[in-house]
């Protein structure tokens, strides 16, 4: 009865156009009333408990750091360095696009932020050079998927805070899969270059390469400082967020890129983004609490065991479920919904916590490319001024590659276990 009310209320709210965070919260409250065995005071208690985490303070700090870095000109310097380094290859602008996303992923931790920053510069540039818009959209939106995987990652912080897994271990665990996925995207973009209308660019001189590399160096040092500081014990992930904010602010001040009015706008934008994310987290946490308290998590585990005791088959079924969920639900919301349900399943089948965590993140973010929502591909399509549906043919190979990379991470423990075992001893 409780589960029926929960899902029926959630579906009704979505039909009525209620924002996702409030749809999850209201349906959870309705289910608690329907069950009648708990005080309504559990609602504020669970909401406060879900947000009362020192580690979660890293989320608004990393969001603010990303805003500061984008406005300080760091993004432009990264793009310039990437173009100088590999822009002369066939499809060089596409390769520079992907490499820029890899570098920026190590700064922002947000797919949408990376897409907006890189896409607004690279998609028009690729169009002017004769690239097909569908190809530009596919390359840019798929490259943005690396942001939540390559450390530091906002959703890795949320996953670690929910499961108790070391955030430093999650950062290290995502590094190799993120790089592997990025290299694969570059190879695929090269293979599809002729089909996408790509051409070669003039090779940068050694002086141009050195100059652009020197200009981008302050940005490239950020992930080294953040991840190195966390792993060495100098500061916690939350303190690392504060260090990132201070570094980005100092960089922008020295570069004379901030004004009083502009600084206020940055703080406001970061506050709205962080507030939205934390409201979603609160609503999804309440929804997850009802799922777990009603026995749905245990029933799901029993259902998996009844289907198969083979961990490889179970992992593939989990992958399908996560991708389907990611198609309809925003990544943070989906993560908070499924972690309490899937964690005991992963433990039952003997999967390492970091490996399963990175696999979960990669599975969920794939929904950013796939219909019907595909928010990353939709935003990239708007930048390119092309209908989202006209990009499906070019998006498909990139979707298939990311799915293959995700399953490889799930089945090959070395990819997520090597760096943590090497560093965290």
Mean pLDDT, all residues: 84
The fraction of residues in strands falls at: under 5%
- Strand tally is 0
- List the helices and strands in order: HHHHHHHHHHHHHHHHHHHH
User: Roughly what percent helix?
Assistant: over 70%
Number of helix segments? 20
Q: State the distance separating the first and last CA atoms.
A: 48 Å
Large-scale geometry? globular
User: What Rg is obtained from the alpha carbons, in whole angstroms?
Assistant: 22 Å
- The SS-based structural class is mainly alpha
Describe this structure in words.
This protein has 425 residues and is mostly helical. 77% of the residues lie in helices and 0% in strands. It is built from 20 helices and no strands. Helix 3 crosses helix 13, helix 5 (74-86) packs across helix 11 (206-232) and helix 10 (167-191) packs across helix 17 (353-365). The relative contact order is 0.15.
Topology of this protein?
Layout: H1 2-15, H2 20-35, H3 42-51, H4 58-71, H5 74-86, H6 92-108, H7 111-128, H8 133-143, H9 154-163, H10 167-191, H11 206-232, H12 237-254, H13 260-293, H14 296-307, H15 311-328, H16 331-348, H17 353-365, H18 375-384, H19 392-411, H20 414-423
Helix pairs in contact: 1-2, 2-13, 3-13, 4-9, 4-12, 4-13, 5-6, 5-11, 6-7, 6-8, 6-10, 7-8, 7-18, 8-18, 8-19, 9-16, 10-17, 10-19, 10-20, 11-12, 13-16, 14-16, 15-16, 15-17, 16-17, 17-19
Which structural traits does this protein have?
77% helix; 425 residues; mainly alpha
């Amino acid at each position: 009865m409780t589960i029926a009310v929960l899902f029926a209320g959630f579906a009704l709210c979505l039909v009525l156009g209620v924002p996702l965070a409030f749809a999850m919260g209201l349906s959870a409250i309705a289910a608690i009333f329907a069950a009648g065995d708990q005080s309504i005071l559990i609602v504020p208690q669970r909401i406060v408990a879900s947000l009362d985490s020192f580690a979660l303070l890293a989320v608004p700090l990393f969001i603010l750091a990303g805003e500061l870095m984008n406005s300080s000109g760091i993004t432009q310097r990264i793009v310039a360095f990437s173009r100088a380094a590999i822009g002369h290859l066939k499809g060089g602008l596409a390769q520079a696009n992907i490499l820029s996303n890899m570098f920026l992923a190590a700064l922002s931790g947000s797919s949408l932020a990376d897409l907006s920053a890189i896409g607004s510069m690279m998609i028009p540039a690729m169009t002017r050079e004769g690239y097909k818009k569908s190809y530009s959209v596919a390359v840019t939106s798929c490259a943005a998927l690396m942001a939540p995987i390559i450390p530091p990652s906002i959703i890795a912080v949320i996953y670690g805070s929910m499961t108790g897994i070391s955030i430093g271990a999650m950062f290290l665990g995502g590094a190799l899969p993120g790089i592997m996925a990025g290299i694969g995207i570059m190879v695929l973009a090269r293979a599809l270059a002729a089909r996408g209308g790509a051409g070669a660019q003039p090779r940068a001189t050694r002086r141009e390469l050195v100059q652009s590399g020197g200009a981008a160096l302050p940005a490239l040092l950020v992930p080294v400082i953040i991840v190195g500081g966390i792993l060495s014990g100098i500061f916690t992930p939350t303190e690392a967020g504060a260090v990132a904010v201070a570094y980005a602010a100092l960089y922008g001040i020295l570069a004379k890129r901030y004004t009083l009015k502009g600084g206020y706008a940055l703080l406001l934008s970061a506050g709205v983004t962080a507030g939205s994310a934390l409201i979603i987290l609160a609503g999804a946490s309440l929804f997850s609490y009802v799922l777990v308290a009603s026995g749905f998590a245990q029933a799901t585990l029993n259902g998996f065991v009844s289907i198969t005791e083979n961990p490889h088959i179970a992992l593939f079924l989990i992958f399908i479920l996560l991708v389907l969920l990611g198609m309809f639900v925003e990544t943070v919301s989906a993560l908070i919904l499924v972690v309490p349900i899937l964690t005991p399943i992963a433990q039952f089948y003997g999967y390492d916590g970091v490996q399963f965590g990175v696999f979960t993140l990669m599975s969920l973010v794939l929904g950013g490319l796939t219909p019907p929502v595909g928010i990353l591909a939709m935003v990239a399509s708007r930048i390119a001024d092309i209908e989202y549906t006209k990009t499906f043919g070019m998006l498909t190979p990139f979707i298939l590659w990311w799915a293959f990379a995700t399953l490889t991470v799930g089945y090959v423990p070395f990819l997520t276990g090597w760096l943590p075992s090497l560093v965290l001893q």
